[in-house]
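Quick one before lunch.
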Amino acid sequence: MQNGKNKRIYIQDVAVRDGFQIEPRFIPTEQKIALIDALSQTGLAKIEVTSFTSPKAIPALADAEDVMNGIQRVPGVIYTVLVPNMRGAERALGCRADELNLVMSVSETHNLTNLRMTREQSFAQLAEVIDYARPSGVALNVSLSCSFGCPMEGAVPKEEVFGWVDRFISLGVHGITLCDTTGMAYPTQVYDICSEFRQRWSAAELTLHFHNTRGMGLANALGAIEAGVDRFDASLGGLGGCPYAPGATGNICTEDLTHLLGLMGYDTNVNLDALLACARQLPAMVGHEVPGQTMKAGTVTDLHSKPEWFEEVAERARQKQAQQNSLATSAAQAAAL
Ligand code: COA
Ligand code: ZN
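Model of the zinc ion complex:
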């Protein structure tokens, strides 16, 4: 494994969308706005602000318009929003989103559960959305849920995933996100799929979206980097999860990913201290502990103080060592005579 040699990796935070969508407690709109404004100052490439879904399906994000209209946009940060259908696209364009992140699942069962449409119905909706949105010049990304397996169907063949990628690329979509919705991916699988994707669609912008459901999330990110991927969704504090995917848990954690990549010599452009300050606000906002680890342990350069009794014990050990050294010297001298 090589040092990152300052290679740029783009980190896109999805906590206020993927994270908050599954929280049972409604996060007040002004708190969402304040968090997005703070995240905007950390150097992240993109922030997924909300989703324009049915408020009955995702009540936690029913305030999508108010959030979009309330944030202070920082130049250079892309503000993206999740869109499942035409109604969502109309609402998102009404709020001047920088990007529409169109969503469907490559698993028929998950698509029916999550979006109440067959995959063909979703594709037809999204194709209409693409036609409708194109004149506005808004950026278009497609997120394909369950690209590394479905919690209800099991394995999803790679050719199935690539078939959907091909259809969207044929419609002129530039960005594709392969989503591991319930943490079924593993690093060698990720490496193979990402390598082949990059060979087949070298001009497309590929993002990887991992959930850490089985503890493989950061390993998967490294597998993707090995295959040349330079864009990741991640969630502050490791929040996240699709409410319509059984067993879903949080995304890979933004500050843990940033910390890891910084140590390995990659350039994420993210101010880790500022990000950690944002993450440490989360438990109070959501009302429970969050999975992020660096926010609890500190970075590897945050040293802990020694225990109070350290000097006494160390001095005793040093004295004993000196006695042992002098005994050993005397014994060596006696043996030499
Ligand atoms: N925004 C707001 N309201 C919407 C909407 C949207 N994008 N799409 C549909 N609706 C409303 C309709 O106006 C209708 O309202 P009414 O009951 O007051 O008449 C209602 O929702 C049902 O509309 P319908 O088209 O029949 O949708 P549905 O019930 O089949 O649900 C989705 C389809 C896609 C809208 C819904 O399943 C959804 O929003 N899913 C999102 C799931 C999600 O975000 N998962 C996590 C991320 S992967
Ligand atoms: Zn997700």
